[in-house]
Design brief:
Immunoglobulin-like, mainly beta, binds copper (II) ion, metal-binding, CusF_sf, single chain, 241 residues, Plastocyanin
Length: 241
């Protein structure tokens, strides 16, 4: 029973990074492969399409804290970042990109057993070592970078990643549509629309997610130009005019 529980906990906690190329050397199974094509925070980036490089340093301070520098990242949705991570401390550290919930779950697991990540969203470095994590931030939102080695998170090794929604929309991404129904309470709208280039979908009538700002620009029966994209796996209106 204990084993079964443990396996379940692992499977849940590891909902985080699951890629065919990812390996976990800490001894957990990869039987959950394929459940998630990509993480909430995005997906492994392609070295050829890096938009910018951010240098990150990890170290201990004289007063016993452990820190990342810089302390926060501001990223635009869709950007591919090369994190050039250096461990300038005297202890081993790691750099993990995930949601706060994902890091929390992974941290709890690491407190129970010593494991090393070797997933594309993380890098573990010995003192003096450096390495790259290349990541594409596909979704807007607030995420987190952290060191999940037991005790390090609590000593200060975590910081926010703010991914701002991309407001510069390509004209070619807009589709024409007619608002059929608005359910403001549920944050949903039904649109009779033409082809959706960003989603590679044909003309039809579909329900989309839309936030308050988007719904404010709509009324039932109105003809609109809008952009639909996938946000956290849901078809969402991301721009309207
Ligand atoms: Cu650390």
């Amino acid at each position: 029973m204990k084993n079964l529980l443990m396996t379940t906990t692992l499977a849940l906690a590891l909902s985080a990074p699951v890629f065919a190329s990812g390996t976990h050397s800490g001894g957990h199974d990869d039987d959950h492969v394929g459940e998630h094509a990509q993480m909430m925070i995005g997906k492994p980036g392609d070295a050829a399409s890096v938009d910018r490089t951010i240098n990150v340093t990890m170290r201990e301070t004289d007063d016993g804290d452990m820190v990342f520098s810089p302390e926060a990242f501001e990223i635009a949705q869709g950007e591919t970042i090369r994190f050039n991570v250096t461990n300038a401390g005297a202890l081993e550290h790691e750099f993990v990109l995930d949601t706060m919930a994902g890091n929390e779950a992974h941290k709890e697991m690491m407190a129970k057993m010593d494991m090393e990540h070797d997933d594309p969203n993380s890098i573990r470095l010995d003192e003096g070592a450096s390495g790259d994590v290349i990541w594409t931030f596909s979704n807007a939102g607030t995420f987190e970078f952290a060191c999940l080695i037991p005790g390090h998170y609590e000593s200060g090794m975590h910081g926010p990643i703010t991914v701002a929604q991309n407001s510069e929309q390509n004209e070619a991404d807009f589709s024409s549509g007619k608002i059929k129904k608005i359910d403001a309470k549920a944050g949903k709208v039904t649109i009779i629309h033409g082809p959706l280039p960003k989603l590679d979908m044909p003309a039809m009538t579909m329900v989309f997610r839309a936030d308050e700002a988007m719904i404010a620009k709509m009324s039932e029966g109105k003809e609109v130009e809008f952009v639909a994209d996938r946000v956290n796996g849901k078809l969402t209106v991301t721009a309207i005019k």
